[in-house]
Amino acid sequence: MAAHHAPRLPQARRWLEQAGATLDPHLPIAVALSGGADSTALLLALAERHPRIEAWHVDHGWHADSAAQAAWLARRCRRWGIPLRTVRLCSLPPTNREAAARQARYAAFAGMAAQSGIDRLALAHQRDDQAETVCLRLLQGAGVRGCTAMRPVRRRDGLILLRPLLAQPAAELRRALRARAIDWLEDPSNHDLTLRRNRIRHRLFPAIDRATEPGYATALFLRWQRQAARLQRAIERQAEAIPLRREPDGASVSWRQWRAAARPIRAAVLQRLAQAVCGAGVCLGRRHIRQIEAWRAEGGRGGLDLSRSRLIHAGDRLILRLKGGMEATR
User: Best label site of 79, 296, 303, 321, fewest CB within 10 Å?
Assistant: First the structure.
């Protein structure tokens, strides 16, 4: 086993037991480390049981101290005996900054995975983050699938993303660190009220709690998340009852079965086709789903161009094919 010198957190075993069987200690793992309380707690929890663990830090360069903070993390990880990889992002666009940063961050993680040979990445999203995500998705007009929010395990860009702390309140993670006198970095952007998530966290949820009782907002949106997850599982079961057939250059389902299904089932079938053809983790957006529904209502004549693929109605088959020259990741 690697010689980790990291402090131990007594609560770590319980946290990881609640995460289930997704954390095989015999496999190498990386932790996305911002230096905040959540990712620090996750790194320490996993370091106790994983002989091969790395920390991956992405420096967004959003504030003047970001390079100094990256250096501080490097010293801490050295002291704890945990390898650290750091990538500094180039300038991000001033508009839609969160989405651009997220895309660039996952591209950086994919690069670190290629360098290290580690394909399992643990993310420190916790219970409060999950509730905020559900609220954010509802405000964006998401349906059932969107309100399932963050899943404990998913694939993206060749990575297996694990979220072991989704059942843990942020306050408990901070209490565990304080009990061991372990400090963490505070990201100034967490208090930037131009970001919608921060307005939810610092304004909307406290207002709901004041009007009801402490913790009500988080509990409310997590209840909606659980209901959405149950509904989504039922939808996916019905979607899987429509057989998917591999084609030489794509995948297809029965046009008749798909056309007759309820709209949520049709959308789930389309997502299955997209992942089969374009790769795990690919998701059709609402704009594409609306386009496909309009095309279906008109009889599905001809074909329909999507971002990376083309949808075709041929005989009794609904076929999704990649556009010329693009290869799927299967």
Answer: 79
What is the Cα–Cα distance from 57 to 34, expressed in whole angstroms?
6
CA distance 142 to 139: 7
Query: What CA–CA distance (Å, rounded) separates 276 from 270?
Result: 10
What distance, in Å, lies between the first and last C-alpha atoms of the chain? 33
User: How confident is the model at residue 23, as a pLDDT?
Assistant: 79
Q: To which H or E segment does residue 55 belong? A: strand 53-59
- pLDDT, tens digit (0-9, with 9 covering 90-100), for 297-330: 999 888 899 888 899 999 999 999 988 644 443 3
β-pairing, 29-32 vs 245-247, is unpaired
Nearest to 75 by CA among 185, 170, 173, 189: 185
**Alpha carbon separation from 226 to 84, 134, 171 (Å, rounded):** 35, 10, 21
Nearest residue to 165 via CA among 52, 27, 32, 6: 32
Position 302, amino acid: G
Three-state DSSP class for 86?
strand
- Compute CA 157 distance to the chain's CA centroid, rounded to the nearest angstrom: 11
Domains of the chain in sequence order: 12-196 (3.40.50.620), 242-322 (3.30.465.60)
CB 254 within 8 A of CB 316: yes
Residues 177 and 43: their CA atoms lie apart, in Å, by 12
